[in-house]
Design a protein that fits this description.
Blueprint: E1 11-21, H1 25-34, E2 48-61, E3 69-76
Antiparallel strand pairs: 1-2, 2-3
Length: 85
């Protein structure tokens, strides 16, 4: 997954685990409320629940230069603080 480009650098996400479509209207209403009504107002918006096992976040320093440098953050679901064991 890629985020929208930011002025300070690109960001990427890689995740492993399970995902399922959430159809419970009460959950959709909570998402709508927690986003200030920004999400969940259109029928084409599908809501998914992610049960993540591992996550890799990459932030690119020096984005847009000839020497980009990746900075990694790794998270694991089986560790108490979400970091690598």
């Amino acid at each position: 997954m890629h985020s929208f480009p930011t002025p300070t650098g690109g960001e990427e996400f890689y995740a492993t685990g399970l995902a399922h479509r959430e159809t419970d209207l009460a959950v959709r209403e909570r998402v709508f409320g927690s986003t200030g009504g920004a999400l969940g107002t259109h029928d084409f918006e599908a809501l998914f629940v992610f049960e993540l096992d591992n996550v890799l976040h990459t932030h690119w320093e020096n984005w847009g230069t000839g020497v980009p440098s990746p900075q990694f953050s790794i998270g694991h679901a089986d560790s108490a603080d979400g970091t690598a064991p």
